[in-house]
């Protein structure tokens, strides 16, 4: 059954177990850091929209801190950011390397980008709708959940897919410098040991992961667009 797979990727027979282990590490990074980044990104994006000048929770100092902080973090190349955050990773999760050690860097590398995307999506909501909701006596919490987030589900899903593609890419970068995962597998066996079939196999696996995620994302967009 697997003869044709082994024909296309002859080194898979001896490295299949290692590949599965690295895939598990990648899914762990996606599951933990990805979900946490998604939640924090939406929170920060909502904060940027509601606390900006003229927002429903206007708070200029808080807005300035987050706005400038996001710009600063986004300007740092991810591979340098990982190194800078090693002390913080050791403090928060007890290690600065491996899969667990990558969680902090992945969150810091993803949240600023995703938060900007969320800010852009929420800013497209008709301001008249927000004003009308406030005039009807809606609380800020009701406006955030009932207007901003509810009306932005297609847009949030769309930018989530964009961010997911970027996130999978930086998990591979993290793996290349010791965090494990499929990026580490590709570097060790595909590049250092010269197993070209393993490089192509990891590329196909990454494409499959992204395609599956985009399929479900597009399905959500179609069902929530009105």
Automatic annotation (TrEMBL):
<feature type="transmembrane region" description="Helical">
    <location>
        <begin position="72"/>
        <end position="92"/>
    </location>
</feature>
<keyword id="KW-0813">Transport</keyword>
<keyword id="KW-1133">Transmembrane helix</keyword>
<dbReference type="InterPro" id="IPR000515">
    <property type="entry name" value="MetI-like"/>
</dbReference>
<keyword id="KW-0472">Membrane</keyword>
<keyword id="KW-0812">Transmembrane</keyword>
<dbReference type="InterPro" id="IPR051322">
    <property type="entry name" value="AA_ABC_Transporter_Permease"/>
</dbReference>
<protein>
    <recommendedName>
        <fullName>ABC transmembrane type-1 domain-containing protein</fullName>
    </recommendedName>
</protein>
<dbReference type="Pfam" id="PF00528">
    <property type="entry name" value="BPD_transp_1"/>
</dbReference>
<keyword id="KW-1003">Cell membrane</keyword>
<dbReference type="GO" id="GO:0005886">
    <property type="term" value="C:plasma membrane"/>
</dbReference>
<dbReference type="InterPro" id="IPR035906">
    <property type="entry name" value="MetI-like_sf"/>
</dbReference>
<feature type="transmembrane region" description="Helical">
    <location>
        <begin position="159"/>
        <end position="179"/>
    </location>
</feature>
<feature type="transmembrane region" description="Helical">
    <location>
        <begin position="98"/>
        <end position="115"/>
    </location>
</feature>
<feature type="transmembrane region" description="Helical">
    <location>
        <begin position="27"/>
        <end position="51"/>
    </location>
</feature>
<feature type="domain" description="ABC transmembrane type-1">
    <location>
        <begin position="23"/>
        <end position="216"/>
    </location>
</feature>
<comment type="similarity">
    <text>Belongs to the binding-protein-dependent transport system permease family.</text>
</comment>
<feature type="transmembrane region" description="Helical">
    <location>
        <begin position="199"/>
        <end position="221"/>
    </location>
</feature>
<dbReference type="GO" id="GO:0048473">
    <property type="term" value="P:D-methionine transmembrane transport"/>
</dbReference>
